[in-house]
Amino acid sequence: MNSNWLSRYFQFSELKTTFGREMLAGLTTFISMGYILFVNPSVLGASGMDKGAVFTATALSSALGCLIMGIVAKYPIAIAPGLGVNAFFAFSVVIGMKVPWQTALAGVFIAAVIFFIITVFKIRELIINAIPQSMKLAMAAGIGLFIAFIGLNEGGLIVANKDTLVSFAMLTKGTTWLTIFGLIVTVILMCRKIPGSIFIGMALTSIVGMISGLIPLPSQIISAAPSLAPTFGVAITHIGAINTVQLAVVVLTFLLVTFFDTAGTLIGLAEQAGFIKDNKMPRVGQALLADSSSMLVGSVLGTSPTSAYIESSTGIAVGGRSGFTAVVTGILFLFGLLFSPLLAVVTSQVTAPALIIVGVLMASALKKIEWDKFEIAVPAFLTVLGMPLTYSISDGIALGFIAYPITMIASGRAKEIHPIVYGLFFVFIIFFAVLFG
């Protein structure tokens, strides 16, 4: 591909960037978010899904999303299966609700189809504006606490206790100390603002685990990509299993979580890169199309919903301004398919620190909630606290959306409630009635 053609297509001159800078930005972004190749199979594997197939589905759906984002939307923003929504899939839906992973994957597919349709018909903006900002922030923060809790448990730091429900673990296991090592190293790297801190932290933790004998050595480093056969097309063949109100709410939750996660991330990254003009994001339709397309394809391949990644900010920080940054990241995800044997050394103790750190980053949304207004604080608090305490993202969201109309009406602010929010109020009332009735 001619470099001059690339320069013209991606507008290097207009954006005051260069081929070399875009290459570096794409590499930096990939290093920062490459951990998802190993964390996603670990999280979804807990639901019974084949880790090898999920690994391949993760790489392919990420590559597709990045390439569409880069070539069509021309933004330096990468896409991959989102942390948080994958935890909802595995721990809330499959493990918590006892829903087979095949049915849960069908739910992702239906949510992806709806997602794609409302993107094409430009309905997403209407829905985004209908949901109160405080509830969007509470959802993000609550998911952060939820996945951090999962990380603490998976890493062996927090355990069940019949007297106190949960407690700090006895530090007698080497694997628990491995989690502590990984967490400390990653925190230090993050504090030093080292690009790819989470990825580097996972690599160092795996190395220490292998040296200490806590993690077995891999039989090889490079191999052909694992087969997609265990998960490919399963979502489509199990659509008929989505036949209860409970599962309909699961689909709605997949839709809502991915919806707001992507919207917030896209706007934040576009602001960082200086793309926002007159309070509008140019080519936002193409950017949303990239996200919805990869989610749709990813569900067919066999992975949880994809979303724009905040780690794209690392590539933007080193100068990435064009879609070529995302293209480079997408190509690197394809190269990542060759390293599936490393899945064996990326144990739950290795991924736990990553979950905890991402939880910290997501919890930063708490600072923007209007805690001084009680009618807003109550539903936000119930949403945030409800997710880790009920071990369910959907239950936390339901508590918040049931409380919100009540507190707003009680405070004389009923006119501020959008009809869509009233609709969600009744949906979640029915959800609880069916789930616990």
Automatic annotation (TrEMBL):
GO terms for molecular function: purine nucleobase transmembrane transporter activity. It comes from the Bacteria. It is found in: Cell membrane. The chain crosses the membrane at residues 21-40, 52-72, 103-123, 135-153, 165-191, 198-215, 322-344, 350-366, 378-405, 417-436. Pfam families: Xan_ur_permease. GO terms for cellular component: plasma membrane. The keyword Transmembrane helix applies. Keywords: Cell membrane, Membrane, Transmembrane, Transmembrane helix, Transport. It is a multi-pass membrane protein. PANTHER family: GUANINE_HYPOXANTHINE PERMEASE PBUG (PTHR43337:SF11), XANTHINE/URACIL PERMEASE C887.17-RELATED (PTHR43337). Belongs to the nucleobase:cation symporter-2 (NCS2) (TC 2.A.40) family. Azg-like subfamily. This is Guanine permease. It comes from Sporolactobacillus putidus.
